[in-house]
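Budget justification note: compute hours in this period were largely spent on complex prediction jobs such as the one shown. Inputs:
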Amino acid sequence: MPDSSKRFETIIQKLRDNNHKITPQRLAIVEILAKSIGHPSVEDIYTQLKDDFPTMSLATVYRNVLLIKSMGEVLELGFPDGSNRYDGNKPYPHPHVICIKCGKIVDPDLESLDEMREEVASETNFKIISHRLDFFGVCSDCSKKKQ
Amino acid sequence: MPDSSKRFETIIQKLRDNNHKITPQRLAIVEILAKSIGHPSVEDIYTQLKDDFPTMSLATVYRNVLLIKSMGEVLELGFPDGSNRYDGNKPYPHPHVICIKCGKIVDPDLESLDEMREEVASETNFKIISHRLDFFGVCSDCSKKKQ
DNA sequence: TGTTATTTGATAATCATTATCAATAAATAT
DNA sequence: ATATTTATTGATAATGATTATCAAATAACA
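Corresponding output:
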């Protein structure tokens, strides 16, 4: 079973468990969030769905993303410029590498964060609950294009 | 010479170098940013200045923070809820520990980030330019209050 | 198939930030 | 010192992303 199908099932099940109705619009939004290819924005999701759902309202996308976020099944990545991107495939905190040219977001494999977390906790006396780590740079595709 | 005085001089000098006029409002805003006690928001800065400058416009605070940010002399910390906090004392990327109860922001000392940066660069083929690392949790003051 | 409560679509409201513009004031030369 | 020039300020309108509103539509279940 592919990873994104598993995520799809998990999110749908959680919606059912919380007595939310399963509408075609909701299904389609969950489908995209379960994959979260490229970490889409609300606008991205809306654009992807307009073909299949010509009457889809932008508000519906916002509402459902918010609902799924409130259940902890999507990670919201807000940026200083006000843009928000979403990750329903890995809804827990994890590092991101973001291309400042094309907006591409990649998930690197990093392990040493857990040590850091404990280091911070003991140094500051905070009870650490979550974190956010983003690296910003230029991807290899955009580096080539530059000339 | 205290750290914040040094920061104050640096920012003012950079303003002069870029042919910006030194107004009383600007001086006062730079003074607060140079300290950046608690990583203030624009609203925080505005509130602090209203006593000394009763006619101070909120737009003036926004304008000057933006100007100083464009010169690279203040770090903007934007959060998913839309709030922005500023650090003119350490305007370069560095980790933050944020209390989700009272909003307090603390700077921990962490060294291992540079290794991580190189690890990410070699793994993703990105040219890493900047980063952002926030830990979220509950500070010891708020932990005590809870009961 | 009918009933009920939720969801949807369309649009208005909100709120932080940015843009506008006339009046003011800083910097520089006179 | 004073005049001149140009940036800055204060007040407010505009913007844009997100959220709220509400009547109509529809999923869930009897």
